[in-house]
Design brief:
With 108 residues, this protein is largely without helices or strands. It contains two helices and two strands.
Length: 108
């Protein structure tokens, strides 16, 4: 019998392929909410650790604060211009900052 008359030629690409079994790996169960054409650029949010915040301030200013030359103002860490909108913190980091005299201000 030539292959063009074979029944499997008509079933190629189908799940059961003529065997009568209707199983497919996505056949059972709920799949959940779908996100078609997910582009991960929309979810790009770099992070910076709380311990590394001093790296965002220029070296001259940082040295002045650490030596105690500037006592009238507090350093301001603005995370948005440095393209790091999210900061990671260890446990009770906000409490540590406020105890040291700093202020944590969330800007939406």
């Amino acid at each position: 019998m030539p292959t063009r008359f074979s029944k499997t030629r008509k079933h190629r690409g189908h799940v059961s392929a003529g065997k009568g079994r209707k199983y497919h790996y996505g056949y059972f169960g709920k799949v959940g909410m779908r996100y078609y054409h997910k582009q991960l650029n929309h979810f790009w949010r770099p992070t910076i650790n709380i311990d590394k915040l001093w790296a965002l301030i220029p070296t001259e200013t940082r040295e002045a604060y650490l030596k105690g030359e500037k006592k009238d103002t507090a350093p301001v860490f603005d995370l948005l211009p440095s393209a790091t909108p999210r900061s990671l913190a260890r446990a009770l980091a906000e409490k540590k900052i406020t105890e040291a005299g700093g202020v944590v201000e969330l800007v939406a």
